[in-house]
Amino acid sequence: MRTFWKLTAISIQGQLYYRTSFFINLLTPLALLGGQYLLWAALYEQQGGAAIGGMERREMFAYILFAFAMSNLLNWAGENRLSREIKTGQVAARCVRPAAFLTQYLAEMTGALFLQGIVNLLVVLAGFLCFGRYMTVPSVSALPAFILCLVLAVALRLMMIDVFSLLCFFTTGYLGISWTRAALFDFFSGAMIPVVLFPGWLKAVACYTPFPYMLQAPVAVLLGQDTLVGLPAVYGLQTVWILIFLGLHGLIYGLARRNLTIAGG
Amino acid sequence: MIRIFLSMKAQYIKTEMEYSANFWMMLLSGVLTRLVSMAAPFVIYSNLPDIAGWKRDEIYLILAFLFIAEGLCSVLFEGIWQMPAMVFDGKFDCILSRPVSPLFQVMSYGMGLQGISVFLVGAVSLPVFLKRLGLFQPQGVVLSLFFVLCGTLLCMSIYLMGNCVVFWFDAGGRTTIPYTLSQVGQYARYPLEIYPDIMRFLLLFLVPYGFICVVPVEILRGSASLIWDFGVAGISVGFFLLARAVFYRGIRHYESVGM
């Protein structure tokens, strides 16, 4: 565990190296959050305040805030760090360090999302302080269930990004893979539109993917909304998907290592 | 110059096609990301009868204009997105040392393969939705081509201005500002009248995605006068000149490797 925290601390230091850029990058997604509110406020206004797809305006506004906080836990550069290293060959350094490849990756990502997580938490708190009367306030009793769901959701997302990144060993580029992953995540996780608004058949398709359990499920648990499959099943599916991605990690990394040639040795 | 530009693009596509897995993955990602973008209005319209009186096909027409502009920009001017890395790695010094316009070199650098499929999704959607809306007539087609041209110029200008921030502050070769600016475009996928005045102003005059896709559709469906054609052309040319000025201003601020 000491290695893990040491690597996490190094990752945080790395994040803070370009300070201006770091703070700007933390705050620029807020512009998109504002846009989301304006769009949904306009749609509810057009409906005369009536519920859309069973979601009241207060529920939607709270959902948007939490969904933003969760989907922006990692920025584009952070998510693609491993992919870039594979493309440039810098990944060789990871392979020779005296720590497991997955440990190094998880420690780095933890460092990256730690700082962004603090900022996002502050954004959520500020959002509720300023506009709380327009939103459904989560119940304190939902917190324990939410925290467990959140931890599993973050672990699942990190494993999914890891597996998609490892595919770059076989493609020589990473943008196509990253865009595909980001598009699937944004839509099926509910980051763009809550999954409960999907038509029945699309909702069923979403439930067979790991994406809703990375975002929609924890937010729904916190706000007391429909989790689509029930809370115990959410935990179970999150765990199963994490195990599947762990298995895929082992398989893909094993294949990549067998074929990996590092210049000079 | 155009011949050099096109032959450089031809070389890039030949190089990229050597790596077939990556080539097809990029094309697939272009299609997939745009299908997902089209799925968002699909979901909204499955819960609402219309958005401010706009039909679903009209929203898809907006998306078609946006996809074509984004796709063409990616294929033709991908180098703009490489600027932050060029400045950080010192490759921008090479650009400045060659006896050709730096802007031309930046624009002709690289090629976004996914842009090919993004463009194709837009190019297929445009006639389909023009036809479904009864706008597939000579006037509608000519106007659409004009809007595609202006939209591409405008889209390129927005990308260029966004990426020019690299000249003013260090970001380790990466900054989310250009990406955020490009993401603002997702709010121009819906009719602008649903937004408050400040958002309309933003989407029309600060990050003018509205002129790439919404205003053209308003003109085609007749809810905006044909005079707005001049507005679209004026904003496109004006923004290009502004972006060009910002770029050259940025070069004056550039301090070579190690900034």
Report on this model:
The complex is a heterodimer of chains A (265) and B (259). Chain A is mainly alpha-helical. Chain A is built from 13 helices and no strands. Helices cover 71% and strands 0% of the residues of chain A. With 259 residues, chain B is mostly helical. Chain B has one domain. Helices cover 75% and strands 0% of the residues of chain B. In chain B, helix 3 runs antiparallel to helix 7, helix 8 runs antiparallel to helix 9 and helix 11 packs antiparallel against helix 12. The radius of gyration of chain B is 19 Å and the shape is globular. The two termini of chain B are 31 Å apart. Chains A and B meet through helix 2, helix 3 and helix 10 of A and helix 2 and helix 9 of B.
Provide a quick synopsis of the model.
The complex is a heterodimer of chains A (265) and B (259). Chain A is mainly alpha-helical. Chain A contains 13 helices and no strands.
Mind telling me the C-alpha Rg of chain B? Answer: 19 Å
State the end-to-end CA separation of chain A. 30 Å
Termini gap of chain B: 31 Å
Number of helices of chain B: 12
Strand/helix succession of chain B: HHHHHHHHHHHH
Low-confidence stretches of chain A: none
- In total, how many domains does the architecture of chain B comprise? 1
Q: Beta-strand percentage of chain B?
A: under 5%
**Unreliable segments of chain B (pLDDT under 50, ≥5 consecutive)?**
none
Task: Provide key terms for this protein.
heterodimer, A: about 260 residues, 13 helices, B: about 260 residues, mainly alpha, globular
Topology:
The complex is a heterodimer of chains A (265) and B (259).
Chain A: H1 2-15, H2 19-27, H3 29-46, H4 57-71, H5 76-79, H6 81-88, H7 91-96, H8 101-131, H9 143-166, H10 175-188, H11 200-207, H12 216-223, H13 231-259
Helix pairs in contact in A: 1-8, 3-4, 4-8, 4-12, 9-12, 9-13
Chain B: H1 2-18, H2 20-45, H3 56-77, H4 79-89, H5 91-97, H6 102-108, H7 113-132, H8 138-163, H9 177-184, H10 197-206, H11 209-221, H12 228-253
Helix pairs in contact in B: 2-3, 2-7, 3-7, 3-8, 3-11, 4-6, 4-8, 8-9, 8-11, 8-12, 11-12
